[in-house]
Amino acid sequence: MVKLKLWIGAVATVFALGFIKFSDAYSYDTYYYTQKVDHFSFHNNDTYQQRYLVNDGSWTQDGGPIFFYTGNEGDIEWFAKNTGFMWDIAPQFKAMLVFAEHRFYGVSLPYGNKSYEDIKYLGYLSAEQALADFAELIYYIKKSTPGAENSSVIVFGGSYGGMLAAWFRMKYPHLADGAIAASAPVLQFPGITACGAYNQIVSRVFNASSPQCAASVRKSWDVINTMGNTTEGRAQLSSLFRLCAPLSNDSDVHNFKDWLTEMYGDVAMVNYPYPANFLEPLPAWPINVMCSHLTDSSLEGEELLEKIFQATNVYFNYTGQTECMDTGTQSTAGSLDDRGWDVQSCSEMVMPMCTDGVRDMFEPADWDYPQFVEDCQNNYNITPRPHQIEVLFGGTNIQQYSNIIFSNGVLDPWSGGGLLKSVSSSIIAILIDQGAHHLDLRSSNPADPPSVIAARETEKSYISKWIRQARRNQKYRESHKLNPILID
Amino acid sequence: MVKLKLWIGAVATVFALGFIKFSDAYSYDTYYYTQKVDHFSFHNNDTYQQRYLVNDGSWTQDGGPIFFYTGNEGDIEWFAKNTGFMWDIAPQFKAMLVFAEHRFYGVSLPYGNKSYEDIKYLGYLSAEQALADFAELIYYIKKSTPGAENSSVIVFGGSYGGMLAAWFRMKYPHLADGAIAASAPVLQFPGITACGAYNQIVSRVFNASSPQCAASVRKSWDVINTMGNTTEGRAQLSSLFRLCAPLSNDSDVHNFKDWLTEMYGDVAMVNYPYPANFLEPLPAWPINVMCSHLTDSSLEGEELLEKIFQATNVYFNYTGQTECMDTGTQSTAGSLDDRGWDVQSCSEMVMPMCTDGVRDMFEPADWDYPQFVEDCQNNYNITPRPHQIEVLFGGTNIQQYSNIIFSNGVLDPWSGGGLLKSVSSSIIAILIDQGAHHLDLRSSNPADPPSVIAARETEKSYISKWIRQARRNQKYRESHKLNPILID
User: Fold this and answer.
1) Which residue from A129, A398, A417 is facing B174, i.e. has the nearest CB?
2) Catalytic site residue B437?
3) Which of A54, A299, B44, B393 is close enough to B38 for a disulfide, judged by CB 3.0 to 4.6 Å?
4) How far apart are the first and last CA of chain B?
């Protein structure tokens, strides 16, 4: 089973080149805050420098809110430059923008270069510790910035960052008045979401582009397996797919299939309505372009694989500049840190994934939890805690929380683990037709479908509501001394 | 400055003897749950056995709720036997009773006898870790007990246990539908509650008993100081107060005064309307009895101190069986663990205390934070985190939480750090006239004042409301599949 990654970071790079020209618009000051390595126990007094970025160009001290991005698995500068929605709406709200880097990513490494060397350091990489970092930082910013003490705070995040935004509002509602959680698969955990969801959605999107396309992919695995069985066939596959390193054994063939499988998921995540750069540039609606090569599912053998290659080429070589295909990577996105996410997947972000080849277009593969545990123990000396997230954050039982928007793109495979129905008047689900992975957090674009324009409007209206509510609460606290016995 | 303790444990023992005759009524089964030592980081996979007690004699599987006591700083059996309110109302609600022991207390020692030996063990004593223990335990009980999966859960606690109950509902509302937080000084933290509150309330209660009484106490310190200045005077003091160990220097005199100061606070906490056993038995309304000896504030010198001694004698020697006074202890209450609470006071339960001799009847003493930090570092290798609790739990900014009753006795010195005004329709403050420290959590008594009877009625009606609300939410979740995309 392919280990799937939360991919906001990688998705963000899609637009990295495009943003160079806007770099002036995304200017910020860089700060560091001294954080405790361990917020919840007291035997370790180590601290580290957490990086955060601030733009207060639009902010007004008389009540301007703070829009706070809860950084996820990557370099925070990259998220800052790729969450255009926050920048787009800051002037209207007179908001200060803060982007906080997640511990163990970017330069916010609690133990510097040693951070990933040993579980005794790496053990402090957890969502709970990261949320406490954000809490301390918000508390500090509000206390130390003249005029910010009574500012309302709205947290934003996409993908894992969206989970963090939602969880932050859930656990620290006194520090965040509302949360925009975009494409946050908060339900993608054992016993809550079926393991096949992700790959079924990938397949559904390919099938919607054309049934022949999904059928061609489904058919391709047997062809690859047959060719992969012989030395001659493996050479043929290697040549056909212009592989940098020829396939020399079963294991290579296995990895090759994983690489393809992962690509189908990735392109579904970034199936955006406008051209974008993801490693290599991608066209608008890249799945349609890929599927334009897969219109004839009656093809067999090498002829079919030639078409699969052409589809693959759309993703990995749209510019025609790629000399050979490297099955060792999906992405050269420098700012996404797979190391960290692999660790988090092993400890608490346990997200079962499987395929059955019937409801999806992939080879059948069960979720092999014992194998998963063994790998985590071997790789990191970590034993997974599969129910940790449900115990901490409630799974679907979140009616008692408030002021969170969960937005999901219908085209996004991660939507399978998202909250897709509102559960109360303040825990709101938004579905974005024609939306892939957190399209709504991106800067507005002329090619945006009406659904994402509407989603952003809804988000803005809730943000306004939450800010008004926070001001009312603030006034209430001021006018009602809550601790009235004391004189001194 | 006297180090004041949260005292529910000690208060509970007041009735320990009385309860022997009711022991059948307080019967339970004892269980142990395997808890992670560290819930929030991943380098330590140690576990320990958390003790919890269950009585399901009144529980019905078809919707009976779980009443869960969030254990505080002491042996959980002692809390179970001294929280009569839960036992009193269990039949009416058909409730299961669960009493969970707090880590590092009773027999729930994460590292056995070594638990208190080194900060590397003791570092795991924190409210956050204890709350996560409770979360895991409730999750486990609901999953593993046939018929309990959909049971609503109400958490109860008094004093520090009340803080934990409130905080548990705040952080884990998916696991607790409401909280009864009795005499929980959730605001007794730096920058929120003035340091003089506690001792002002003690003084107010003595003054209300009789102004001469408070004036006599206030006057006594100078007399003690004058006598304490000379060898002869110290011998006189030692004799007058029947001290087991004579005062031999300034430091002894200082400790003697602390011992008296602490006693005045303790008797204010247990100033109950009926006789009770606290170390030695106490009469009903013990402050009135003490003050019956302090009716003439015109007395001077030794004559005044003789009266102070008689008042002291009410507290430490009401039966006349005490041979001499031990200034080294306030309480022989075996089940209250001062060791643990001292540690918690140093790490995160930083509660400033001071006196000014004007608004209180004590010698002036500032809150000496630098000295406090130094002591914590020397004694435990712990550096206090004075704002930890505010960052985590919001201080007075808790309007966005719900379903908590904060009850406080007007006679209770800890009420100064309690939430005394409702902040919303579901964060409710109850003031109990004539109530000392969490009187409402105690079993009903013919001498109960109307205010505590009314408080318990209010609590019961909110518990009913929370249970109905939880059932509605449960039905909503059942009828609305929240994750509807999936088929498998």
Assistant:
1) A398
2) yes
3) B44
4) 65
What is the spatial distance between Cα A474 and Cα A153, in angstroms, rounded to a whole number? 12
Please check whether residue A465 is in contact with residue A108, taking contact to mean a CB–CB distance below 8 angstroms. no
- Pseudo-torsion of CA A485, A487, B3, B9, nearest 10°? 0
Q: At what angle do helices B211-228 and B197-209 cross, to 10 degrees?
A: 120
Question: Is ipTM strictly over 0.95?
Answer: no
CA dihedral A212, A215, A217, A220 (to 10 degrees): -120
B418 exposure class (CB count in 10 Å sphere: 0-12, 13-18, 19+):
buried
Class of domain B12-191+390-480: alpha beta
Alpha-carbon distance of A488 to A467, in angstroms, equals 33
Alpha helices, H only, A241-368: 250-269, 286-291, 301-316, 338-347
Could you tell me if B383 lies within 8 Å of chain A, comparing CB atoms? yes
Distance CA A53, CA B162 (A): 39
Which regions of B326-474 does DSSP assign to beta strands (E)?
404-409, 427-432
Of the listed ranges B17-31, B112-126, B337-351, B414-428, the least confidently predicted one is: B17-31
Catalytic residue among A56, A133, A337, A412: A412
| List B177, B266, B337, B412, catalytic entry | B412
SS3 A145: coil
For A386, how many CA atoms within 13 A lie in the half-sphere containing its CB? Answer: 12
| DSSP-based three-state secondary structure for B433 | coil
Q: A337 an active-site residue?
A: no
Closest alpha carbon to A426 in A471, A468, A479, A462: A462
Distance from CA of A1 to the nearest CA of B (A): 18
Q: Return the residue of B nearest to A171 by Cα.
A: B171
Mutation site for A-interface testing, chosen from B38, B358, B486, B487 by largest number of A Cβ within 10 Å? B486
In this structure, how many other beta carbons lie within 10 angstroms of the beta carbon of residue B212?
Answer: 17
Torsion of CA B327, B332, B338, B339, to 10 degrees: 90
- Give tens-digit pLDDT for A454-478: 999 999 999 999 999 999 998 888 8
* Domain definitions of chain A by residue range: 12-191+390-480, 210-380
CA distance B110 to A484: 40
With the C-alpha atoms ordered B330, B336, B339, B345, is the resulting torsion angle positive or negative? negative
Q: How far is the C-alpha of B131 from the C-alpha of B179, rounded, in Å?
A: 13
* Residue given tokens 């059955």 in the structure block: A356
Question: What angle separates helix A231-240 from helix A211-228, to the nearest 10 degrees?
Answer: 140
Query: Who contacts A234 (Cβ-Cβ below 8 Å, separation ≥6)?
Result: A227, A228, A246, A247, A248, A249, A252, A253
The token pair at A260 is: 């393809």
- Which among B191, B85, B169, B162 is positioned nearest to B419, based on CA atoms? B162
Of B197, B395, B485, the CB nearest to A197: B485
Find tokens 């209180």 and name the residue. B360
Share of chain B above pLDDT 90, in %: 83
The whole-angstrom separation of Cα B325 and Cα B237 is 12
Contact between B360 and B202 (Cβ < 8 Å): yes
Q: Which residues pair with A98 in a beta bridge?
A: A54, A68
Residue type, A316: F
Residue pair A103/A125 in contact (Cβ under 8 Å)? The answer is yes
Q: What is the pLDDT of residues A66-102, one digit of tens each?
A: 999 999 999 999 899 889 999 999 999 999 999 999 9
Beta-bridge partner residues of B61:
none
3-class SS of residue A323: coil
pLDDT at B476: 87
pTM tops 0.90, yes or no: yes
Alpha-carbon gap: A107 to the closest alpha carbon of chain B (Å): 20
Q: Is B412 annotated as catalytic?
A: yes
Residues of B numbered 274-333 whose beta carbons fall under 8 angstroms of chain A's beta carbons: which are they?
none
Q: What's the CATH number for A210-380?
A: 1.20.120.980
